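Example 4.3 (complexes with small molecules)
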Amino acid sequence: MNPLLEIALKFNIEGNIESINPLGSGLINDTYLVKTESEETPDYVLQRVNHAIFKDVELLQNNIKVVTEQITRKLTEAGETDIERKSLQIVPAKDGKLYYYDGANYWRVTVMIPRSRTLETINPESSYLTGKAFGKFQSMLVDIPQGALGETIPNFHNMESRLKDFRIAVKENKAERLDSVQWLVDEIEKRADEMCKAESLYREGKLPKRITHCDTKVNNMLFDENGDVLCVIDLDTVMPGFVTSDFGDFIRTAGNTGAEDDQNLENVSVDMDIFRSFAKGYIEGARSFLLPIEIEMLPYGAKLLTYMQTVRFLTDYLNGDTYYKIKYPEHNHVRTVAQFKLLNSIEENEAEMIKFIKEQL
Ligand code: GN1
Ligand code: MG
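Answer. The structure with magnesium ion bound is encoded below.
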């Protein structure tokens, strides 16, 4: 039997499986679409969890359960219709567990949301809607009690901790690639203190941590057939963090006029129309709980997340490509340079971003 089919059959799937094919463009987990024969039964998403990165799959799946149940409850209270398409739903394994372990790999299944699609690029109108949806997503999670969610990847968006790992990678120079990227190391170090500001404001009690998504890439939002937002997916990294992180990660991906791994740097810059429309939507969606400092720091978040991703790609390049999937040997180098170009563009537009955000206060 096809090994993927054998795995899928361990779950409480309705109907007969027709096909299983790769889905999406994630850099961490392996994702498959499981189609069932009849129109009457749903299709499913099967994933092999990257266990080297998500070390505690029990905790991971439990987090997702807490988050999806909370969202379903909030939507129900708000009298929403079509809730099945607005919240992810975990399909347990036949033994009742939220995942299946085959002795080597961890697997999980969710219901494929019908008539949904992801976008890799966006226009100002859908960017506004996406902003509003991410803002609402955070606001639905704001009252999850402390301690109900664990950190699936400890210190995931903590810049101080990312820099620590980066400095170890520079020092060890495992893949002997440091010479060619020394200039990038210098650029990163120049900005290091400023980029750790959020963590120090947190310690001073001035900036709160909320429940955040931590991977607000544009392709983690599902849209319906009319281009309206359905729901946020990829809940692996939902954990306590700064709201500005989620804001920034979206600008970093959807607000890039080029690709994350663009080899032509002329393509790469920040699209201010996307910035403005996303910011407007986001603030509207999250206004009920945002503090003034959180709104003021949104441009900082755009810079921070682009900087953080530059650091992460470069760390992986220096370590010899052990974290991100790569398609060719210099892929992480190309990604680093492209992120750094985007960071420069954000820095050039920062004053304008700050001015726009002040007008929204
Ligand atoms: C990873 O797998 P994917 O593409 O959803 C990563 C994000 C990075 C992103 C870079 C768990 O997300 O943090 O921003 O690649 N996820 C993890 O594009 O590290
Ligand atoms: Mg993803």
